[in-house]
Specification:
homodimer, 534 residues, alpha+beta, 16 strands
Chain lengths: 534, 534
């Protein structure tokens, strides 16, 4: 999940929800077809009546001509209404090759979550509309609503964090470490080549509970580090900041309290826009004084590590602010823990990181992939955010009838961009990806052996062997071998008249063309041995 | 997937979409609040104006009183509108225990699909509305539509079969064996205790392509047999029939062509209703002659195996019908293949099986669980359908611009009912289910060892060990051990002052309380050895 503010930005492009005309066209077409159908029916009745009434042949001929004309018209019209064969805008199918890559990525992510002792939950794809209301700020306009068909008003989930908070409050859970991998939905401007979709996966890991400061927070960053290292998709950097430091900074820069969230959203655009553009939005659109904006400008260009934290703790203005002091103190602690985890070199404390969503209350972070440094050793360039998250201590309280809070911190891995990169990598390497795990093809050497093939494959399935056969009564041996070449099946179990008599099966290794007779009772073991299955 | 006709039946119960009143209530409430707000605003203006006009203190006081009254009213009203903390009707969350069971069920199903050489695909949760139009007959009213928010008109998928056919036509695929496991959506009357939801999983396996008769069809039944055996949820029976036999039977019984599908839907209700009820629907609602109904009645009570097929091939009326002859011939072939697979004893040719969906063209089947026979050896009683499917040779052609057909046959496993049964079984057995895979808890024997715990756990994570620690600076050893007891973590790695000096970690086996000092460099291997991980 790309930063939510980036989503919000794009949705401001005018006219992008512009495919309404197609739907209107379909309705018009349907109406026209219905009208024509009715005319046709009436004309047919006329012809029938005339015939019954034994009208003159000329009269009948005239009306039949009219009927044929109408029929022709219907034909033309029918041709005009082309059915559009596509998936909805911003969505896609996954073919078996893409699924193989997707499952590889999921395996790495899930095994990391499990290595950290996470449980797993699932929630429905839609929530009551009011569950989502008031949680996403200006991004709320991107929520998909369901049609009111009688009953409850529903919306598709926008992320997995709000459903998680609803789940905790509903079940009065005060303590859990869980992951959740599922699709979320945003009516955003899709940019599918860059991995941005309207339906996309989020892989979330969250720790809920009252704990000592920054220990769970540090673990979330360790998890991001493990996953991005494990995926081997190049160098990366994890930016961290804290909402309390931002709020303290806004206060000392002279931003009125009421404008904190608004200015925060504007700061969040710094990863895509220049400071000049951001400043002009602050002053022009958000009504901030140019002096206050300039003071913010000085802070948000700062990034570094422990040194910067120490420097800001001494900052004459910032150190006077209680929130900022708290945030900086915790940031220092976080860096100590990250150093113990051996990952501090990939983490940058960055005062320009703001994150779009309203619900963050403490530390926030975002991981970006860095393009490889070129020969001139220029600064590595960001190719976009692949993970993000932070602390949200107030969200569960919004759902609890008595407002009881459950502190939470979590991270969300943005799988689609990672998946795009992996897919490109696979294509570039021309690596052949198998989309099945079939160990053996059951083949026949001669005709009329369908029954024998069915008996053998059934035996193999029943002993746990992954086996296929061609669905032909009498397939040619060459076609059967070719199928193995095409799909990467390593072994062929060939039945023939002679083999049946001898109580053996000919086992052929596709790669080497080596053939060996194996006694039928040993076949399962031999296949397992040769395909390295326990 | 529960038979679709059962869904249709329930939706006819009047008033079941009966939570409209709640939504209406909310709208009323919102209207009232808006009205009140407007009144309040007007009253505030009045007070302001009076003050500006320097009206008499009495006059101002009177109007202020009115304002306060309105404000109080708003307060009361606000309190009335309670936020409902729930998941949408007919849906549920899965907690970690339920997820553990669900993953066990999926593992069995997926490994069966893979054993048969299936690839996997995925499609979006919603489709263009017109993709689903005209595919489900009278069940179409159960489709969830998305709100028209500008752009394409969308609906949530109703099953995985129609999206599969759309996928094949869109990508011009004429040959594939794939599985797809995903949630589908039906605005049906939920019966959640019996595993019937509005959001539920389907696990579909389909074979598309032009092949020799009944070979893929037989494999689908073999798969159902393997899955239901593997799940160990008791005895089961797979009923089979063929749409061509049904249509032939309708023809020879004197049902007009135009009523075939309608009468077919009525026959499908025989698993829940008596013949008398079904007959009265045929005659009363569907306008069939009582004689035709009686002739149908004679056929639909027949069930058996190869013997019945032979008998019907000799049936003086049925054998005259081309469609019926084709269907019966293929049914005979199917039973031959099922016998070779060794599963014919669990299959019953049943002329009352009809299946609700429009798109079937050939063999159809449905698996039901049988309750264990009681001591009196009565007939086993059906506890409901857990799998179903059949051949649909025309569906892909409905999407192809040139109407090119791709023959398909498939099966859908209804996971929710199976899941309910598994859940009950687990609860009854009081078996303790672990919801994490954590191998070791990193614990401290004394205070002030947080840093040492962080260093050790980081080492373990980096060498692939699943490890947890408590997020406290100074947790008590007893609490750390208790956490292992509660969550089933088998090992504790304890760091203490002495152990640090000696370069060892104390490894404690939770079950036996045995403790052993392990040299730090050997710890990973020792944990792997003791938790049987490769």
């Amino acid at each position: 999940m790309p930063s939510s503010s980036a989503h919000a930005q794009c949705s401001e492009v005018p006219g992008w929800v512009g495919d309404g005309s197609a739907a209107a066209g379909a309705v018009t077409m349907a109406d026209e077809a219905a009208e024509l159908g009715e005319a046709l029916r009436r004309q047919a009745d006329t012809v029938r009546r005339l015939k019954q009434e034994k009208a003159s042949p000329e009269e009948v001929a005239e009306q039949v001509a009219k009927l044929l004309e109408l029929k022709a018209q219907l034909g033309t019209d029918d041709g005009k209404h082309k059915f559009v064969l596509k998936t909805p805008k911003g969505t896609r199918d996954y073919n078996p090759k893409q699924m193989a890559i997707r499952e590889k990525v999921f395996d790495i992510i899930i095994s990391t979550f499990k290595r950290h002792g996470a449980e797993v939950i699932d929630t429905p794809v839609f929530e009551l509309k009011e569950t989502l209301t008031g949680k996403y700020g200006e991004d709320s306009k991107l929520i998909y609503d369901l049609k009111d068909q009688g009953g409850e008003l529903l919306s598709l989930r926008y992320d997995l964090t709000v459903p998680f908070a609803r789940y905790l409050a509903m079940n009065k859970i005060t303590n859990i470490k869980r992951y959740h991998i599922a699709k979320v939905y945003r009516r955003d401007n899709p940019a599918m080549t860059r991995g941005r979709y309207r339906e996309f996966y989020q892989c979330d890991f969250d720790i809920a509970g009252q704990f000592d400061p920054m220990i769970p927070d540090a673990e979330c960053l360790k998890i991001v580090h493990e996953i991005l290292s494990g995926l081997q998709i190049g160098d990366f950097l994890i930016k961290v900041n804290d909402r309390r430091i931002l709020d303290g900074m806004f206060a000392v820069c002279g931003v009125p309290d009421s404008k904190f969230r608004m200015i925060c959203s504007t700061v969040d655009k710094l990863d895509k826009a220049t400071w000049e553009d951001v400043k002009s939005e602050m002053v022009g659109e958000k009504g901030l004084s140019p002096e206050a904006a300039d003071r913010i400008g000085e802070y948000v260009q700062l990034h570094g590590g422990l040194g910067l934290i120490e420097q800001l703790l001494q900052d004459p203005k910032l150190s006077q602010n209680k929130l900022a002091r708290e945030g900086l103190g915790d940031m220092k602690l976080l860096f100590e823990y990250l150093t113990l985890f051996g990952i501090a070199d990939k983490i940058a404390f960055d005062l320009s990181l703001a994150r779009g969503l309203d619900y963050y209350t403490g530390v926030i972070y975002e991981a970006i992939l860095l393009q490889p440094q070129n020969a001139h050793k220029e600064e590595p360039v960001s190719v976009g955010s692949v993970a993000g998250g932070g602390r949200y201590d107030g969200l569960v309280g919004m759902f609890d009838p008595k407002g009881r809070k459950v502190p939470c911190v979590g991270v969300s891995i943005g799988i689609e961009r990672i998946f795009s990169i992996m897919e490109q990598k696979v294509e570039a390497s021309e690596e052949k990806i198998r989309t099945t795990e079939t160990q053996v093809l059951v083949a026949a050497a001669q005709k009329k052996l369908l029954e024998e093939r069915l008996k053998l494959i059934s035996e193999l399935w029943d002993s746990g062997i992954k086996a296929e056969m061609l669905y032909k009564k009498n397939p040619k041996l060459l076609n059967q071998l070719q199928y193995c070449e095409d799909t990467g099946i390593p072994l062929v179990a060939i039945v023939g008249e002679q083999e049946l008599k001898d109580g053996v099966v000919k086992l052929r290794v596709v790669a080497t063309r080596e053939e060996v007779d194996v006694r039928r009772e040993n076949l399962t073991e031999e296949i397992k041995r040769r395909t390295c299955q326990p």
